[in-house]
Target: Nucleoside diphosphate kinase
Amino acid sequence: MERTLVLLKPDAVQRDLVGEILARLERKGLKIAGLKMMRLSDELLNEHYSHLVGRPFFPEVKSFMQLTPVVALCLEGIDSVNTVRAICGITKAREAAPGTIRGEFAMSVQANLIHCSDSLETAQVEVPRFFKPEELFTYSDALEGYLYNSS
Ligand code: GDP
Ligand code: MG
Model:
């Protein structure tokens, strides 16, 4: 089982898409290990988007991410990192594949509704960056045997 980090960005909150996006991830079979709302500080965003520091659009990305609180999720499942990434679609939402969250609901590079960890290594850094150990839950899911039948 892998854990991955998802953030439902301020455009998801503003556009009342939190439930829709959460439902898609949940219906796929991903288990919710953590779920909360939070405001992102400058410090947290500098860390989270450290690969973008220095890019001309970085200040805009930061202020966008601070427009409203975001919904942070930790999702669990076999290959959850790649699975969630595929469900999200590519960064440039206008060109994201139909059927993906970005492909179905977004038009922008910046306002693309959702963040998800891009690799297992990243996920292992991002989950503890957003969730304290006591905010993450381990429990059995009644349908897991069916969900992963023969993996
Ligand atoms: P992601 O992993 O698909 O979210 O993409 P990145 O890690 O490359 O970038 C992080 C986030 O920064 C993206 O989801 C966008 O919200 C934003 N971003 C990336 N590239 C651009 C850009 O060229 N312009 C603007 N305004 N925002 C961008
Ligand atoms: Mg990224």
About this structure: The domain at 2-131 is CATH 3.30.70.141 (Alpha-Beta Plaits). The first strand starts at residue 2 and ends at 8. The helical segments are 10-14, 18-28, 42-48, 58-65, 80-88, 101-105, 120-130, 144-147. The beta strands are 2-8, 31-38, 70-77, 114-116.
